Amino acid sequence: MIVKNNMAAYKIENTPRNNQIVNILSLAIPIAVAMLNAIQTKLALGTWTKVLPHVNGVLNATCSIVLILGFIAIKNKNIEMHRRLMGVAFILGSLFLVSYVTYHISNEPTKFGGSGWLRPTYYILLFSHILLSIGVVNLVLKAIFYALTDQINSHKKLVKWAFPIWLYVSITGVLVYLLIAPYYV
């Protein structure tokens, strides 16, 4: 249940059911993305989906900037700005996820065509990006849950891990995009 407090921010009650929802989403989202990526038959959504990798690059770059601004805001004890920026980062991440899934259910995978030192660099970045993006879903959802349920000490402990991982995933998303962008059809 969501309740409105006197600061006009929405809060969620800390109930076992709400905590369970966060845990289920933390598992369901990466599993659903993996399953959708594994679908061999692509949906014919149209050529407009060819622009989505570029949109994803912009979403990741913007999310990276917003995350850094959110970090600066909290270091300056500007809690309200921090909340707003982290909300924007969460929305950007959610839009990225929808765009990513839409692209991959409607287009064949793009093969990286680089060679030399770029090839292992690309695959190291890609592998670490994918691996950490799976785990960061849980961290981000829990961090937001703790913040919205006023479990600030738990939030602070968790974001010491969640923030750098989320930032790494966002930045490597941009780097992976820049490295593979020349090979999009």
TrEMBL record:
Top-level taxon: Bacteria
Pfam families named in the record: DUF420 (PF04238)
TM regions (residue ranges): 21-39, 51-73, 85-103, 123-149, 161-184
Keyword tags: Membrane, Transmembrane, Transmembrane helix
Protein name, per record: DUF420 domain-containing protein
